[in-house]
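Q: Hi! First time doing this. I have a protein sequence and I read that you can turn it into a structure. Is that right? Here it is:
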Amino acid sequence: MIAGVISISAAALFSFTLLSKMVERLVSLSVGIMLSTSLLHALPEAFESGADTHKLFATLLAGLLAFFLLEKLALLRHSHHHEGDGHHHAHGHDAREAGKSGWMILIGDGMHNFTDGILIAAAFLANPELGIVTALAIVAHEIPTEIGDFIVLLNAGFSRMRAYVFNLLCSLLSVAGGLLGYYTLDRASGLIPYVLVFASSGFIYIAVSDLMPQMQRKATVKESIPQVLLVGLGVAIVLFLTGRWAT
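A: Yes, that's right. Below is the predicted 3D structure, encoded as structure tokens:
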């Protein structure tokens, strides 16, 4: 619930006040948090659980392909059709598209949040520290994504309050996913490593295929140095929260 409310409220604040520079900073921080959460904590946790290694790698492959297909179907992420996203659409293009697909954005976002809830539950059941960093990684990723959703909904004719309320309701589906994950995965603990691997595949895919290419568009030294520092900060946050700083 905290992850959903914080990400939606922060996204609304940034969207309504147009703090675009802060959004760019959050993208860089998200990359560090998501990659380090996946590669330094969630995946080792899953592979050290005793589960079949070949099945875990198969799950990782299936997860990467699944997120690729979800992106193709525009059910998971909608950030690549936003005005001002660097794609140079004709003026009004996104308003027309958003008018047709505003409700689909909310449906897709709700499905995404429901899945996030299951992943957070699985992480907490595996390890409380992993649960915290997983929730933190989801918040860091969701803020830039939800900002894009707000922009599309506002272009589609939603008022600020209506866009906020509907996005907030969608975010609370993560609570339903969390409850379902807690009561089902707790009784089927053997599934937890596979859910962790699937979650990691999502974090890796989003960071590598979406967020990092956005960062690469900033090619100057002045723009690149803060990006590198914030990625490092994201890694440091995960190491600190998981108690692995010394290693």
